[in-house]
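Tutorial sheet, problem 5. The two components below are modelled jointly, 230 residues in total.
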Amino acid sequence: AQSVSQHNHHVILSEAASLELGCNYSYGGTVNLFWYVQYPGQHLQLLLKYFSGDPLVKGIKGFEAEFIKSKFSFNLRKPSVQWSDTAEYFCAVEENYGQNFVFGPGTRLSVLP
Amino acid sequence: DAGVIQSPRHEVTEMGQEVTLRCKPISGHDYLFWYRQTMMRGLELLIYFNNNVPIDDSGMPEDRFSAKMPNASFSTLKIQPSEPRDSAVYFCASSSTRRVRGTNEQFFGPGTRLTVL
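Model answer (structure tokens):
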């Protein structure tokens, strides 16, 4: 069965620090990749997604993610975080043309003002 | 579109009572998912439907949980009898799968926060 791992359970940063959240998956075939964000007390919202083409994907609020097929990774990055980025971040992977949609365990990001 | 609609937003009940959570997916979406989120276990997929048919219910924790989708615009998740350990936020999500890639993201509802006393 496919699995998704996220390297860090909880990340604490100061404002303006750079962010990189790791995501790795186990499926060897073609995949669709997603990052979702869940702000405190809210539901999950899509940050960005990769389906094909340029492996560097830009999303909302200055986030980007890079798909590295050889490493089965889809890491999320932001050059300078803000206090409002405090949230939980979920990586998700879907097998292409299927609905085997698997979420990672999530990484909680706390940005200190 | 109003997005995925869930009701109620909050539910407080006593142990042993029946609880029914409701979800209306986005119109035209053919997949519907039920998730449970807790601090201890994170986000867990309970069950999902395709064209109103349950496809995978392996995440349903036990027989006290049941889910139905009588039509394309409505689904319920029922817990009977409820227990304190069922306290969690339950999310419903929907998606549309087509032959062309790029349309399979899941859209989440606001969730139902269930507290079982």
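Marking note: The longest strand of chain A covers residues 87-95. Full credit if you identified this.
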